[in-house]
Task: structure prediction
Amino acid sequence: MDLRERAKPDPQSREEVQRWALVGAYERDNMGDFLLLRATELLLARPGRNLVRTAPFTPAPGVMAPERVVRWSDELSARPAAVVWTVGGAVGAVSPQRAWSMSAPPAAWSSFRATPPDERRSLLADLLGADPAEHPLAYAPDPRALLCGARAVRVMNSADLTALGVLPPRSARGILEDLHRIPLISVRDADSQALCREHGIAADLAPDMVHTLLGKVRDLPAPRSLPVLLQVSDAHLSRVGADALLDPLASSPTVSQTGVAIMCAGTASGHDSFEKAEELAAGLTERKIGVTIVRERQPEALLRLIAGSTAVVATSLHLRILACAHAVPRVSLPIAKVTCYARTWDDRMPFDVAAPDLAEALDVALAAGPTDQQDLGRQLADMAERSALALAQRAEEMCQDRWGVSAPAFSKPSLSEPSIAGRA
Result:
């Protein structure tokens, strides 16, 4: 019998088909993850639809995080959802334990590491609210192990899966098996798509969803009206050293003229820190460069800062993406996932730039024609939006087959829809 004939629509089914769980790293401070959420909510929002923000862990007190975030184990064990939608990012090799290492306060992570190995799994299960062995990907929970059951449609959008290529075979095997069970996948770089093809996983290729925020945030500053923006992860700074980075940067005439604003893309463990930002600021001051440290953490405020910058020099992928969307000259330092993405979509602006070449790369970026960059920003935003809408439409069709209930049709949202500014 056809599933459509077997399914019996009822009020409960209609409520459940309107509940979509959005899964992402909302338990820790990271600008890119929050903006992926905002872009996804803008695209998927429809009258009567209940978009639920979920994460593997409850945000720690005091952590900058979106409002109304619940553990996906709590949400999906309490009530069914029609769709479990992973909003994107470098999710392809993030196990529950790896996610906890980035999300936990330092003392909590130290305590976890000090726990005997045979007790860690139990402790991690308590933190997660589910058996980690049943969910190899922290940001793509398997609904078969939760109340929402086999009818939930799994979607993974804007995914970077490249880290799978460096995992030990045993670790990668379980994740690859799980990816085979996700029917709707869109990856954001050519290397991720090649990995999927190698392992027989069907995946579309499209730009990152954050591109779609072009035109969705109001009150942007005038182009190139703000200083050169600098962001460097703690790990990269430790590898190259502050002097190796700041000497060529300070030699740029543009930097001498505009000064530098230093920001953190995320302050979660393993990301950026204001302590390192202060070290960079002190080094620039010694070199007679005007400098400010951006303490703001609201994602929309940071987007405005990026959009108005004279140029962006960064290790963060989403800083590059937002700069690209708003035609801001950009230079990316050597970070593997940024290099993969730039080669796929944004190869006319410098990337994989070693510290000694920074001043020359900045000159190249500043010399690029703004019209071509504006065209690229619009093109990538449109491609990302069309791809995500196609995923949503296919998810709707699968929901109708599985639940026997129709849901509101999807159409391309207008850029005149309300700004994301001020939303939680």
